[in-house]
Amino acid sequence: MCVGLSAKVVSLKDGMAIVDASGAKRTVSAELLTNLNPGDYVMVHAGTAIAKITDEDKDETDDLMQQL
Q1: Residue 55, SS3?
Q2: 58 — alpha (psi -120 to 50), left (phi > 0) or beta?
Q3: Inter-residue contact 10 to 25 (CB < 8 Å)
């Protein structure tokens, strides 16, 4: 099973993003996504931001992870 976590983009530089996932800050690759800005939410898998998501998607993902 593969699990992606939702995270908020804090900053971007040189194809990398610092993201905040429930208080844990990590540096991930943002090279797969275009038009990404601080404040956007992304789905992160294996150290890579793989999709830009909405606030509602983020809330749903967080709820599901808490249930697990």
Answers
A1: helix
A2: alpha
A3: yes
**How much is the CA Rg of the chain, to the nearest whole Å?**
11
pLDDT tens, position by position, 16-37: 999 999 899 999 999 999 999 9
Residues 6+ apart with CB under 8 A from 21: 5, 6, 7, 8, 44
List CB contacts of 56: < 8 A, sequence separation 6 or more: none
Instruction: Give me the number of domains the chain comprises.
Output: 1
The model carries a pTM of: 0.82
Distance CA 31, CA 37 (A): 13
Residues spanned by the domain of 23: 5-67
Nearest-angstrom CA–CA distance, 34 and 56: 20
